[in-house]
Amino acid sequence: MALVLALITYVPAILMLYWVLATGAALFTLLLRDLGPAFSAAVLLSASRGKTWNDKPTAKLGPLTDMHVPQSWFAHFYMGARMHLIAYLFGMSYYIVLPMSILPSGTWKQLADLQATQEWNGLGNGNVWLRLIPGTLHYSAMPAVFLGVGVFVAGNVLQFQSHWILAKLRSQLSGQGKKEGDYSIPRGGTFELVSCPHYLGEIVIYAGLLIVLGCNNLLSYIIFIWVVANLLLAAGPTHKWYQVQFKQYPANRRALIPFLY
């Protein structure tokens, strides 16, 4: 019991360390790349995926450099897409850590208190969670909550539309008898403004989450910064890839942020 109690008590600190390291690595690579080229190359390598895999930077990771897993091609015609194993493993941990991170730290203190008094008998105890949630979840004022939900929904719509356009592009290429690995310039929707509107939709989704959570969760700010920095790192090489592959690529498109970047 003492070990379980100690682990629950230190969960907020462990989560903070996880996000500070992830966000720090992304920001360092984004802003101070020249100060640590080997480290930055490793971070960029983990961000290489899909069409940019063959243009991935050379990092001093030895045999780890080319370790990859097949990337889902549900929305893409381009079979053989890959992403680095490090990125895959981080992604797996991300969706475990994220739900834990958006809970206020008071949740873990109450869990520790329940464990100490032997009132808690497992994560599956619904009565415990019903007691915890009202006392620990403090969101923004109601107008901000509605605004955040609206932003969250808008981000999901943007992301769905972008993937839908890519899915239709896949069907068009397949119908034209194109071989695996062939690409075409995405057209329509927010693709007319940026090369990676699905990444932009992800940022909007997390902006909505940040508005809903308000100032009551420091980790929500760090997570949002990580999302923006990570997607900037991923969108830049994708945008450059399009420009190199297609001489007629629209000059007015930006990588991720309309009219800015």
UniProtKB/TrEMBL annotation:
Alphabetic keyword roster: Membrane, Transmembrane, Transmembrane helix
Domain 3-oxo-5-alpha-steroid 4-dehydrogenase C-terminal residue range list: 137-261
Keyword Transmembrane helix set for record: yes
InterPro entries cross-referenced by the UniProt entry: 3-oxo-5_a-steroid_4-DH_C, Dfg10/SRD5A3
Membrane topology: Multi-pass membrane protein
Compartments (UniProt record): Endomembrane system
Parts forming coiled coils: none
Tagged with keyword Membrane: yes
Transmembrane segments: 6-32, 85-103, 137-158, 203-229
The protein's name: 3-oxo-5-alpha-steroid 4-dehydrogenase C-terminal domain-containing protein
Organism: Coccomyxa subellipsoidea
